[in-house]
Amino acid sequence: MSYTNKQLEQWDKEYVWHPFTQMKSYIQNNPLIIEKGKGSYLFDIEGKAYLDGYASLWVNVHGHSDPELNSALHEQIEKIAHSTLLGSANVPSILLAKKLAEITPGNLSKVFYSDTGSASVEIALKIAYQYWQNIDSQKYKHKKKFISLDEAYHGDTIGAVSVGGMDLFHRIFQPLLFERIAIPSPYTYRMNEIGNEEEVKQYCLKRLEELLQTESEHIAGLIIEPLVQGAAGMITQPHGFLKEVERLCRAYDVLLICDEVAVGFGRTGTLFACEQEQVVPDIMCMAKGITGGYMPLAATITSDKVYNAFLGNPEEHKTFYHGHTYTGNQLACSIAIKNIELIEQRELVKDIQIKAKAFSQYLSKLYELPIVGDIRQRGLMVGIEIVKNRKSKETFSVHEPIVNQIIMIARSKGLIIRELGPVITMMPVLAMKQEELQQMVDIVYQSIEEAISHYTSVQ
Ligand code: PMP
Asked: Is the C-beta atom of 444 inside 6 A of ligand 1?
């Protein structure tokens, strides 16, 4: 099929409905159409290079078109692309499950595959609910609610949206959702009235404990993004917060679900974020980085305690009736095995820790700019909160879309990053070189400076 670049642009506007996108404004601009990738760079159809400061939506680990990952994919495709896990098994899904059981914390050992982060969350919620029903449906008949944090984001399917708390994304679907109970998120920067980080932590934990004291009989599970709430604008949790959440879940008989979809596979400086607080959830969700950004794959891993509750004779009806057509897909599982092997061989996690320190130094320079209110970082996960006034922390109004302008200026200078509300977010390719991280921060600095020059209202 032959086509011109102009035709591609036109067909994109005519036929593709983009996610999370107001299409009316999208079609007024020329789309950025990516054609190739190499290392930390993406290349558009005109051949222009961009640093991938967003790791192609937080997934890319070793860089684009990694020769070893490419060969792993070729090797597998010569054997088979897909067969089903319904009634049969396949080699890569067995080997990957064994590996995931080895590298995840504690006694997590039973892997349920799916294809997206949302599905891995959906599965975790269904397992948590059914777990209590399978153990004792009389005693636990009321356990059907979930707890999650304010501003929580766990995906876009209806179950995942039910445990979500982002008004902009989730409000419209409210009538379709099951009940969740929100607890405050420890968003220290915006909780002046509560106090410092430690006081904010204690405040949020107290709210959780009070809730559990009265409601635990109705709660099947608590779902949380460990260490950082990504989509909420990189809200970093105070040290010790997650550990206390775990303790409270245990004390009040509530299953703990850690959603490691965004933070897993090295992003925060350990292979899994919950390791940093020695937390072992009952259920853990993984996706994004699991295949290094190559194939859609997700996994929900549970402890033996959870899994064993699903064992029984057919008449006991304990089976987990859930499964997707591409569950355990061979291409995806084989690339995930290679991805993990390379993370280990290349000592990527250690490398991320070293780079994160340098990154933090580069980022601190951004405080020279008057509209940079807060910089939050864990590993290679960064949020820069933009404010109109540093003292009052007032944000720009919807009529002053400065954050989006910064993103677009950065793009024109060859860097792809994105905004989440008033926050500029950076999630670089995990193997990005130190000098590329520096370059990224330099571009962000220049872009903010340039955007400020258009605003007379900056104080
Ligand atoms: N959980 C978290 C924490 C996420 O950040 C995301 C996606 N950004 C999801 C779940 C959903 O993953 P997916 O987009 O693959 O469905």
From this structure: no
